[in-house]
């Protein structure tokens, strides 16, 4: 019989690619992860990993097993959800990106706390690119994830998602002008590796140039302050552009940012997660 905990480790290795990354995400030591995966190979009766020095890759059999593991883990999540009583107790861990905290999340938290006072809410602010891994690892129960027109995100088979909000992306500058007129301007962008940074680079490349990025800032209030100080131009999504400083002009672009609700497959009907989904959708409706 295959051990579900070991299957989870194999699934995470398929996503994270290194044993060290799996160990860090799931609070194991690398040697413990290696030992568990070796034991899983014995249980499966076939090689699952190809080892070359310190690197490991999954065999075709391992990839097939990961596909089954996704289904097995989702069914177990669904079973646990169906065993939960109607009264909402325990804790609910929510992951959210900074610009959504005050506009979308705060009203939803008030509604959840009022309707379900015995439900303990825990909020983690994080970049959306980290949210899928945190959901799979079980450190989050619900999260807001994003994609941009120029930065599509591959579906994660471990997660279910649903549309929540679509925003316009704006060109923030000290004067009107289209994107292709800013090829000589200095630019302000988020930290490399974030979705916002990738979106800025790709949007500019689609307009025929590579942006000359002078400043990096992840808080859109800081980004707009730098624009107001004449330090460059930037692309800012709607939630980050609600209160631009005096002198900053916001020109709407065709680019859109799309926010989705995400949770582990099989957990959507869990009373706490279902309540969070309803509260967040209601908050977005009121915000609009």
Automatic annotation (TrEMBL):
CDD domains: PBP2_LTTR_like_6. It comes from the Bacteria. The keyword RNA-binding does not apply. SUPFAM superfamilies: Periplasmic binding protein-like II (SSF53850), Winged helix' DNA-binding domain (SSF46785). Gene3D superfamilies: Periplasmic binding protein-like II, Winged helix-like DNA-binding domain superfamily/Winged helix DNA-binding domain. Signal peptide: none annotated. GO terms for cellular component: protein-DNA complex. Residues 2-59 form the HTH lysR-type domain. Pfam families: HTH_1, LysR_substrate. Keywords: Activator, DNA-binding, Transcription, Transcription regulation. Belongs to the LysR transcriptional regulatory family. This is LysR family transcriptional regulator.
């Amino acid at each position: 019989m295959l051990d579900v905990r070991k299957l989870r480790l194999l699934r995470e290795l398929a996503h994270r690619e290194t044993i060290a990354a799996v160990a860090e995400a799931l609070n194991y030591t690398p040697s413990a992860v290696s030992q568990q995966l070796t034991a899983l190979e014995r249980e499966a009766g076939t090689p699952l990993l190809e080892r070359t020095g310190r690197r490991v890759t999954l065999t075709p059999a391992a990839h097939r097993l990961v596909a089954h593991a996704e289904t097995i883990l989702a069914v177990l999540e669904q079973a646990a959800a169906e065993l939960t009583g109607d009264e909402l107790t325990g804790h609910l861990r929510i992951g959210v990106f900074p610009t959504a905290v005050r506009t979308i999340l705060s009203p939803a938290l008030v509604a959840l706390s009022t309707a379900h006072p015995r439900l303990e809410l825990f909020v983690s602010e994080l970049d959306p690119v980290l949210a899928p891994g945190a959901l799979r690892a079980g450190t989050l129960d619900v999260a807001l994830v994003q994609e941009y027109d120029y930065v599509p995100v591959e579906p994660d088979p471990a997660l279910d998602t649903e549309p929540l909000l679509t925003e316009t992306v704006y060109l923030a500058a000290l004067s009107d002008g289209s994107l292709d007129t800013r090829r000589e301007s200095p630019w302000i962008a988020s930290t490399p590796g974030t979705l916002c940074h990738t979106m800025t680079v790709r949007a500019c490349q689609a307009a025929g140039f590579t942006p000359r990025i002078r400043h990096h800032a992840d808080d859109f209030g800081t980004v707009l302050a730098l624009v107001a100080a004449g330090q460059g131009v930037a692309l800012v999504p709607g939630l980050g552009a609600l209160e631009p400083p005096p002198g900053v002009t916001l020109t709407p672009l065709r680019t859109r940012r799309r926010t989705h609700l995400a949770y582990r497959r099989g957990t959507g009907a869990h009373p706490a997660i279902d309540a969070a989904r309803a509260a967040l959708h209601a908050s977005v409706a009121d915000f609009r």
